[in-house]
Amino acid sequence: MKVAVLGLGKIGHNTAALMVERGFEVSGFTRDEKKAEAINEYGITVSGALEGNFRVNATTDIKEAIAGARFLIVTTTAKGHKPMAELLKGNLEEGQRIVIITGNWGAYEFYSVLKDELKEKKVIVGETSGNLAASPTLTYPATAFMKPSKKSMSFATIPAKEAPEVVKELKQAFPEFYAVENILDTSMNNTNPPVHVPFCIFNITRMANAEDVQFYGECLPPILLDFTMKADEERCAVSKAIGGVPKSILELMNTAWNVNYDNIKDLGLNNQSLKSVKLPKTPYHRFLTEDVPYGYMAISRLGKKYHVPTPRIDLLVEAYKYLLADKAELDGPEFDVDMEEVI
Fold first, then answer.
1. pTM of the full predicted structure?
2. Does the domain at residues 2-185 carry the CATH identifier 3.90.550.10?
3. What is the mean pLDDT of the chain?
4. How large is the C-alpha radius of gyration of the chain?
């Protein structure tokens, strides 16, 4: 079976290699012609949790990339979701499945762009609640390092009722996936913003000074851990108000890694993949520029729309806007499609 990996950055390299390892013919789409040439010449070499050289047919032609592919695996940043949906418009084939890693409202944005075509061609769009492997690295050309993957990952679809069936279809590609009720579970219960945003905002001086510090270590004193969990309670309250089933960040991370810790600091310090994660050495990192607009800023918007107070989340969003100033990414879902339509 052929699958297409759309977006050949760090996550895309590792995902494409993993799909080859799991027995698929893989095409990859990138806008970068030199990157496509390097992958086609050298293959993708991966070390770490996955070892080997994996052949992938990389192209800058979206129609060529998705032709005949059953699964379209989207591995762009959240900011790239809507442009990728626009690129796919008019090119989708009957019965394809779109798998967005990581969601961050990706399925919602794909639906808002492609709604009529999805229905006409019986295409199902789905998303995960996070990345399988933490903080992958990429060395150009076509060389990547993969950390151990999470043991399980939630997956939701639009239409919502199709998730269990699509998870069965994806069993060979992603045995880690399990179906959840709807995209409120995946986007509202995304594991990245509740951790990345408060840790980074309150350690932004260290980021600006490019300090070499462990993300879950000295960056997380008890006072910040308490704040992080209180902000997470606000996220859960918004999720409940809009019809979701809220899960705390601690519950989500324990489930993802199949462990049972009492706090996220101990979990991070004792996890093989997470304990090596370092605080970003620049404030202009996706932990802020992606996880604020598509994470906590989105939750803040929903809180206001559904009359749920989110004072700590609002504080983090405002701090981000003022600290990064004209370099602050402020995109994100506007929630112009009725939520009932997608859940």
1. 0.86
2. no
3. 94
4. 19
